[in-house]
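User: I'm putting together a teaching handout on how sequence relates to shape, and I'd like one worked example. Could you take Dihydrofolate reductase from Adhaeribacter arboris, show the sequence you're using, and then write out its predicted structure as tokens right after it?

Assistant: Happy to. First the sequence, then the structure tokens directly below it.
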Amino acid sequence: MRKIISFMHISLDGFVAGPNGEMNWIKVDEEIFDHVGKRISEGDTALYGRVTHQMMENYWPTAGDEPDASKHDIEHSKWYNKVHKVVLSRTMQDADLTNTTIISDNLSERINKMKQQEGKEILLFGSPTATHSLMQQNLIDGYWLFVNPIILGQGIPLFVDIKDKIKLKLLTTKPFTSGVTELNYTVDRQ
């Protein structure tokens, strides 16, 4: 069975964005890009909420074609263009979207069906609202968190409206020279 892994940058106090969605506090550099690039290159499906997907769609399809494109821009653009994208949205239509599936209803049923299909892990990128929806239905199988060395004090929290405890098992940790620490957890369903 395929697993859904939530990939998030998070502040030390548990926020994934500032009060107005700000993400300018997130630390990224070549070391983190290279590390993340290795893992996501093995994936074949990216899961997004509508807002994150629109942000990605506005940048990544052509980012690698720009004359001043970085190594990361080129590699991630190639990956983005080939990976199957799934978008959770009640308002989007998929008329012009290549290699994209929109899920607008029957979330639990559709996600569980997708998890049964052949393929590799499904990476859920950013998308706090989508993550909250999947979390509430116990559909996330792991958390791949990049803890940034900052306390925001307020913002959009990663964990909200959790009804039951979610036990996690730590798989790996990795500190980066920027001060960011990767925490890779699987959900312990026993």
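A couple of points you could highlight for students: Strands lie at 4-11, 15-17, 45-49, 84-88, 100-103, 122-125, 142-148, 156-157, 168-175, 181-187. The first strand starts at residue 4 and ends at 11.
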